[in-house]
Design brief:
nine-stranded mixed beta sheet; QueA-like; alpha/beta; six-stranded antiparallel beta sheet; single chain; 2 domains; Thrombin, subunit H; 7 helices; 17 strands
Length: about 325
């Protein structure tokens, strides 16, 4: 399996730069992975695809404002892990301005570079006082959104059910749901804190050589019981797939147990799903691990045909874009 097998042509103007005016107004492509049929619907039609004794599983992580700029605007840091309130592990830009011993002023805080991590080049930065997420922090919008974050994003780059703080990026399939739709559907929650690795490109041609990023997750006992008694599991987003398949890969649905930990699961064709039966997801970047994941569920050829049709039909792509339902 080669990375280039998962490429497709995407006109830049189809990348959504802003969310629709109201939640739930997106288009929804429906893909029947058994018959190969592709339909063009609206997200408002989604409840009609939820059958009796189905269970939606949603990721209740909450995006934090983890992007910070120095007071003079010349440097940028992205907090990828809060070791302590005043000790952060960060991606930095430009790297040459973050040598060990150098300082950076953010608001009323001064940080000192204590260490450069060998593997990824991240910096360990120690602050005299913790910078404020509220006043100094910015949302780390994906790099394909070509604008600064704004007031609108504080609400819209967050699901209405976001609860557990810790994500750098949003679980974007959940952004479509207004509260009233969720209230009318059977659902439960897991938590996976989406990290910056979700945006990192696959840099090797042989898929099996790619090292997947690790993300923290939690699966509670209430969710386990609801999942075990459901006839069909509908995963809202690829982040939920990563949690459920990580927890169920050895024991299956019947042996699922409440747990927390970190997962670096990498799902690509061929893969036998243990828990997930159906998936609601946004459209993903060419040659990305997420496109590989959905191809494992629906089949690579069918998925690439669906993406070709999405471009032809002028769907809106990526985080603030339209969605697809794989059944």
């Amino acid at each position: 399996m080669r990375t280039s097998d998962f490429d497709y042509d995407l006109p830049e103007e189809l990348i959504a730069q802003r969310p629709p005016e109201r939640r739930g107004e997106s288009r929804m492509m429906v893909i029947d992975r058994h018959s190969g049929r592709i339909e063009h619907r609206q997200f408002a039609d989604f409840p009609g695809f939820v059958k009796e004794n189905d269970m939606l599983v949603m990721n209740d992580t909450r995006v934090v404002a983890a992007r910070f700029f120095s007071n003079d605007g010349s440097r940028e840091i992205l907090r990828v892990d809060m070791i302590l309130p005043t000790r952060w592990k960060c991606l930095v830009r430009p790297g040459k301005k973050f040598k060990v011993g150098r300082t950076v002023e953010i608001g009323d805080s001064t940080g000192t570079v204590m260490e450069i991590c060998e593997e990824g080049g991240e910096r360990i930065i120690e602050f005299d006082r913790a910078p404020s997420d509220e006043t100094d922090g910015h949302l780390a919008l994906p790099p394909y959104i070509d604008r600064p974050d704004g007031v609108e994003d504080r609400e819209r780059y967050q699901t209405v059910y976001a609860n557990e703080e810790g994500a750098i990026a949003a679980p974007t399939a959940g952004l479509h749901f207004p509260e009233e739709m969720i209230a009318a559907l059977p659902h439960t929650f897991v938590t996976l804190h989406v990290g910056i690795g979700t945006f990192r490109p696959v840099s090797v041609e042989d898929v099996t050589e790619h090292h997947m990023h690790s993300e923290k997750y939690s699966l509670g006992s209430d969710a386990v019981e609801k999942i075990k008694t459901a006839d069909r599991i509908i995963s809202v987003g690829t982040t939920v797939v990563r949690v459920l398949e990580s927890c169920g890969k050895s024991a299956g649905k019947s042996g699922l147990k409440a747990q927390r930990g970190e997962t670096d699961i990498f799902i690509y064709p061929p893969y036998e799903f243990q828990i997930v039966d159906s998936l609601l997801t946004n459209f993903h970047l060419p040659k990305s691990t997420l496109l590989m994941l959905v191809s494992a569920l629906a089949g690579k050829d069918l998925m690439l045909e669906a993406y070709r049709k999405a471009v032809e039909e002028r769907y809106r792509f990526f985080s603030y874009g339209d969605c697809m339902l794989i059944i």
